[in-house]
C-alpha cells in the first residue's frame, strides 16, 4: 500500500493487524488501547466507536472479540480516510466500516436502538482549558470543538439497544460532567476503573462502563498501574499490549 510522505505503518500485535499513522498528525495513545481492551462486547455484537480517529479502537475490538461488525465514526475527513486505508490494509472491509460524519449524525446514518456496544475516547478538554494546538487534527481530537460530553452520551444512548453497554475513557477531573450527562441520557454508570501512571501517583485516566436503562449500582475495579517504580511497564500493561517476556526485558 502506498503511503503519504509523513505516514508509517505500525504493527498492533493482534492477529497481525497493522495501522497507518501520520507522523505529523494525531497518532493513537495508550488511552485508546486501554479502552479497546476494556470494552467487552459479546459474541456477534454490533459495535459503534464514536470519534474513531485512525481506527485503533475498531481494530482492537474486532481483533480481540468475535463481533459481527464495528462502525467507526470520524468527523475529520483526512483522518477518516486514513482509518479506511488501515481497514483495507488488513482486509477487514466486511468487519469494520468507517463513516466520515459528525458523531451527532450517527443515529440517523446507522440507526437507533440497535447496537450492543458503543465506545468513545472523546476530547478531554472543554473549550477554554489547556493549550489549543495549531494543528487542527489535534485540536479537534483533544478539545471539545466538534462535540461535548453531552453530545457523546446522547448519541451513544440513541444508538444502543435496551441494556446495551457504553464504554468511555476520560479524565478523572471531568467525572462530575460525565455522570450528569450519562444519567441525563439513560446511561447508568455501572463500573469504573482509575488508571494511574504508577503506585502512589494520582490517576490521570478513568475507564467507565455504563448500561442503558439499568438500575443504579456503581462498582469500583482495582486500579490499573502503567509503570513500575523502575519505569518499566507493569505486567498488566504488557498483557494488554500483547508483549512477550523478551520484549518486557
TrEMBL record:
Its EC number is 2.1.1.223. GO terms for biological process: methylation. Gene3D superfamilies: Vaccinia Virus protein VP39 (3.40.50.150). Signal peptide: none annotated. It is an enzyme of class 2 (transferase). GO terms for molecular function: methyltransferase activity. Keywords: Methyltransferase, Transferase. Residues 33-170 form the Methyltransferase small domain. SUPFAM superfamilies: S-adenosyl-L-methionine-dependent methyltransferases. This is tRNA1(Val) (Adenine(37)-N6)-methyltransferase. The lineage of its organism: Bacteria, Bacillati, Bacillota, Tissierellia, Tissierellales. The gene is yfiC.
